[in-house]
Hints:
homodimer; alpha+beta; Arc Repressor Mutant, subunit A; 2 domains; three-stranded antiparallel β-sheet; three-stranded mixed β-sheet; DNA-binding
Amino acid sequence: MRPFRPILDRLHQAGLRPTRQRMALAKLMFEGRDCHVTAESLHAQAITHRVRVSLATVYNTLHQFTSAGLLREIVIDAARSYFDTNTSDHHHFYWEGTGLLEDIPSDQIIMEKLPSPPPGTTIKRIDVVIRLAGCTK
Amino acid sequence: MRPFRPILDRLHQAGLRPTRQRMALAKLMFEGRDCHVTAESLHAQAITHRVRVSLATVYNTLHQFTSAGLLREIVIDAARSYFDTNTSDHHHFYWEGTGLLEDIPSDQIIMEKLPSPPPGTTIKRIDVVIRLAGCTK
DNA sequence: GTGATTGCAAATCTTTTGCACTAAA
DNA sequence: TTTAGTGCAAAAGATTTGCAATCAC
C-alpha cells in the first residue's frame, strides 16, 4: 500500500466515485498522520472545516471505505465504533477513561505461542488491546 | 476464587441481595460450564426456563455482577455486549459470522515481547481476540 | 440520460432511566 | 419499617434505511 497515493486514485481503485463528500472526508482522514475516528468525531471535524455532509453519509462512507480496505474498524468500546486509517497489522493501547486510542506497531508485540485455529477455520485477524488505567497523556 | 461456591454465598459476598431474579439468573449462568451471554440471550434463556424477569433487570443484573467481579465484559462486536462467566485471565476465539465465542486458556498464548505502558499509566488488562473465518463448529 | 450517491427524517436496535410498586432485611 | 430491587414504559444513543433530489460519468 502506498500511503501517499493521491486521494483520487485511492477512491478510483476502490471503485468509489469521487464525490465531493467522499473526497472531503478522505482528505480529512488520509492527509496527515494516521488517525482514529468515530462517525461522530469525523462529522464534527467535517463541520469545523466547513464541509457540508450529513451524519448518515459519514456512516455510509466509513463503511464503504472499510469494505474497500481503506480503513479498518476497531472494536474496543461497546458504545461506539472506531475506524483506523492504519490498515496494516498492528495493535492498540486504549485509555478507557478518555476513549483515547494509540497504535502499537506490530513489532512491539511478539507472540511466542499461539493456539491453532479450530479445525475448518482460519485466522482472519488477531487483535490485541492493552487497556490502560491512569493519567492521560 | 472458588468456582463451586454456592450461588447464595457469591451474592452475599458481592453485597447483592439474593432476590428471586438474581438467584435465577445466577443459576442459569453459573451452574454448569463457563459460558458467554448477551443480555438478549440470557433474557431468552430465562423465559425458556419460565423465569419471569424483565430485560431491564437482566441488563442491571449483568452490570451489577460485572462490578462485583462475578462476570467479565468482553468487547468483541460493536452490535452487542458479551459477558463471560470466566473471570480469570484468558483470551478468545470469535467467529464473526455466527457470533460464537470460545475461550482460549491463558497458557495457550504467550507474549514474548510487550511494549511498556506509556509513562504514568498502568496496564489494566490485555485482551487478545483471534477472529476466525470458516465453518462453524 | 442513467445509475450511483446524498440528505433528511423516520425507523431500528441496544441499552439506560424515572418512577411507582414490591420484597428483603 | 426501611431501603434495595423490580418492572414497565419512555428516553437516550448509535446506527440504518427509505426515498426523492442531486451528481458523476
